[in-house]
Structure formats: C-alpha cells, structure tokens
Amino acid sequence: MRTLLALAFFVASLAQAADLPVVPKVDLERYAGRWYEIARLPHRFQEQCAGDVTAEYSRRDDGRIAVINRCRRADGDFDMVEGVARVVDPQTNAKLEVSFLPGWLNWLPLWADYWVIVLAPDYSYAVVGHPTREYLWVLSRTPQVSAETYTALVAQIEKLGYDPQRLRKTPQGTLADKPQK
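User: That's the sequence. What structure does it adopt?
Assistant: Structure tokens below.
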C-alpha cells in the first residue's frame, strides 16, 4: 500500500511538473542584460545571499548565453558565479537549461531547467520557474517594482501552482548605484 501511495504521489508530481506553462516567445536579444532579483523561493545554493542579487545575461558566439549571478553576503562582501545557459525549446526560447559548473567540468551532464513563465511585453519584469515548482525567481530590470506590479505577479505565480507564502522578497539597494566587479 505504501508503495502504491508513493507511486501515486510521484506520478502526480510529474504531471504537475509537465503542466507548467511558459511564455509563447522570448526574444533572447531583448532578454539579455541585467536583471534584479525581486523575490525568490528559498533554496540551499543561494543561502549566502543577503541581498542585492542580480543576474546578467549576454549572448555568446556559440549561440549559448553567458550568465553572471551576483549577490551581497551578510558581511557586505559580494559573491559571483559564472555559468552558461542553452535553449532547449527553440520554438519559444522560453525553456532553457543552465549550468554553473567550472569549465573543466562542463563535460558533465548537469543542467538545471530555467523556464520563463511570465514576461512583461516590454521586458521590464520576468518570472523564471522550474517544472517541479521548487525554484522560482521574480526578476525586474529595476531594483524595485511597484506594489501593484508585485501583487499582480504573486497572483500569477499562485495561478501557476506555486505557494506564494514561500516567496521571499530580496533586499535591493547597494548594487543599484554602484558598479559590480
């Protein structure tokens, strides 16, 4: 009985993962540039980030996307990690995979899903999710969004099957007016 119950939960989680919709189209040239993290679901690999989280994307000559993620730690110093993204759904460009392995380990097949599930028509904000709904980032071209925009995004996130109670706002401030190294 326990095995059947576990199997049922597993199949249900796969069905939920499969039904996460993405936006119809992402223009990768317009998506490139700096994004500020407005909120995220907490997870282990970003625990050290106290605030001022940004992601910067740029097109590479090989067709992939360079990724640079930065954040301020509680001690005031900054962490940075470089990665690469690749498109896995060229019809929409909304489903990508990212890897933050060092170059000498790039041969390992360790890629994480990066799905654009909400995108403003003017590319001023975006929501990136994972098909398991365990990961989520609310991004903006500016360090803050209006309360009205944030509330609308949280409502969209909830409709997509995420628990908005788990969402944590990201403090922004020091990076908005200082160059990043």
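The chain has three helices and nine strands.
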